[in-house]
Design goal:
Blueprint: H1 19-32, H2 36-48, H3 77-83
Helix pairs in contact: 1-2
């Protein structure tokens, strides 16, 4: 027996969520009789379907002497983990 065509277009992936958010998602899914996957999919479709432009990120203020210690680009996840003393990216 062959799988339906739409079954062939799904990808398994792992996402990292803060513990509190993960608990909320699980509780909401259970309350609505849905899967966590269906809630995440719905949320992503809502975000991706927005027609408005995303606001431009304002630069973060920098304090102290940049020559005395390094500064980290918060958009670079691996650099942030290295700065925090973690030797592996998350």
């Amino acid at each position: 027996m062959y799988a339906p065509l739409d079954m062939l277009h799904h990808m398994r992936t792992t996402i990292n969520l803060p513990d509190g958010l993960a608990r909320e998602v699980k509780l909401r899914a259970a309350a609505e009789g849905r899967t966590v996957t269906s809630l995440v999919e719905e949320g992503l479709r809502m975000v991706l379907g927005r027609s408005e432009e995303r606001p431009v990120d304002e630069p973060l203020p920098a304090y102290g002497d940049p020559g005395a210690r390094f500064l980290v680009d918060l958009h670079d996840r691996e650099a942030l983990w290295r700065a925090l003393g973690e030797d592996r990216p998350r």
